[in-house]
Design goal:
Distance between the termini: 56 Å
Number of helices: 5
Strand order of the largest sheet: 4-3-2-1-9-8-7-6-5
Strand content: 35-45%
Length: 409
């Protein structure tokens, strides 16, 4: 922190700043500048709430409220509501911000240069009218280098004029809300939510081919990608990626809740009830979307004979640190069902064996396990299609409610 504040102070001395407090209300354009020169662009709005600034990070149809904003003289401190990241910046005479975006990882902090300009609502400048339209479904292959192992996703985009919104669907969830443009023959899409900081660029060769794709993720990650439009493309069935080893198996786990009290799936509160076991983590954006939905659904349906229990896999094995992260996550979504700390990290190669050995293997976060009233596993669903996926989110809700109606009969 001292180093960051020293950088800010040096910048202030060199460029001059004002000591007046406050952020300019209205739209802002922000950018994260990587060491490789890549710039991840996103937008936010600043509003006044009873004399205090509130920020709304905007990505396509999402407005993420950020209310932990502190202005001290010519410095601004912004803590994101999820994923343990924050901004520390200096305020310049023209109202702009310059500083760092800091991610607090399990064993270290990492940061990237941050700059934001008020009064600018556009995400990407458009220098030429779009020569192609990318609306449609795009099977996409991501790879570190040509000939290397690739991962598969499906891009879904909607274009109006030069403006584009959409997402990428993967077997473990979606890339949430992407927003951008087609500038001439170049596709540009980005998003930022406090965890995801993504930039996608590609050449739109024709109405069915994307080439020379570059995917910048966060502070250092980088991949290439290519895509071909195909309306019939499908991902693997999310219920086949991870299953129980034996049909009709039951689960047997016990972990401490946020107060440290051991909670077991064999406890009385779960007996003779349909149970949803939510595999989650406070670091996981798709888990955030799933928790928002399940928390609300549980309040409306808990009297029908259903329980939900969340198992969290945090980035550290330290209980107190995991508890702090999970508590903030649960509080933001007003979670009223048990939240348990597994004490196992998502990167642990033996996480399944240590926590849920009845399963063939956890392939992604979130994963949702459905138990009938006798405690038997009837379905294991990997991933979550959140509200950024449009019709897929609506399809998920329809299928989820149909499954729960069957389990609660």
């Amino acid at each position: 922190m001292k180093r960051i504040l020293l950088i800010a102070a040096t910048a202030l001395a060199a460029c001059g700043t004002t000591k007046q407090a406050g952020l300019k209300t209205g739209p802002w354009q922000a950018q994260l500048t990587r060491q490789d020169g890549g710039q991840i662009i996103f937008n936010f709005d600043v509003a006044d709430s009873a004399g205090a600034p509130v920020i709304y990070v905007t990505n396509a149809g999402e407005r993420m409220k950020v209310d932990e904003v502190k202005v001290e003289g010519d410095s601004v401190f912004i803590r994101m509501p999820f994923f343990d990241s924050e901004f520390k910046a200096a305020v310049y005479l023209n109202g702009s911000l310059q500083g760092k975006w800091i991610r607090h990882l399990a064993d270290k902090d990492v940061d990237i240069d941050f700059y934001a300009q008020p009064g600018k609502s556009e995400r990407f400048a458009v220098s030429k009218p779009a020569t192609r339209n990318v609306t449609g479904r795009w099977p996409t292959w991501f790879y570190d280098a040509p000939g290397k192992d690739s991962s598969f996703a499906i891009g879904e985009f909607v274009q109006s004029g030069s403006q584009v919104t959409g997402t990428f669907l993967t077997p473990s969830g979606d890339y949430r809300y992407l927003q951008g443009v087609v500038d001439g023959d170049t596709l540009k899409l980005s998003t930022f939510d406090g965890s995801h900081a993504y930039l996608f660029t590609a050449l739109v060769e024709n109405d069915s081919t994307l080439s020379n794709g570059t995917f910048l993720a966060g502070i250092t990650a980088k991949q290439q990608f290519s895509a071909r439009k195909d309306s019939s493309a499908r991902l693997q069935d999310a219920t086949t990626l991870n299953t129980v080893k034996e049909p009709g198996a039951t689960l047997d786990f016990k972990f401490p809740d946020l107060s440290g009290k051991p909670v077991s799936i064999k406890d009385e509160r779960f007996k003779n009830k349909a149970v949803i076991v939510q595999i989650s983590g406070s670091w996981c954006p798709n888990c955030m979307d799933e928790t928002a939905y399940l928390s609300d659904w549980y309040k409306k349906n808990k009297d029908r004979g259903v329980e939900i229990v969340m198992l969290t896999y945090e980035r550290t094995t330290d209980f107190e640190k995991s508890k702090k992260a999970a508590e903030g996550f649960a509080r933001k979504f007003d979670v009223t069902y048990p939240v348990l700390i597994t004490g196992v990290t998502p990167s642990d190669p033996e996480k399944t064996e240590k926590t849920l050995p009845q399963l063939t293997g956890l392939k992604g976060f979130p994963t949702t396990i459905y138990l009938d009233r006798s405690g038997k596993v009837v379905e294991v669903h990997t991933g979550f299609n959140g509200p950024g996926t449009g019709e897929h989110y609506e399809e998920y809700k329809k299928e989820f409610n149909a499954l729960m109606d069957r389990l609660l009969q």
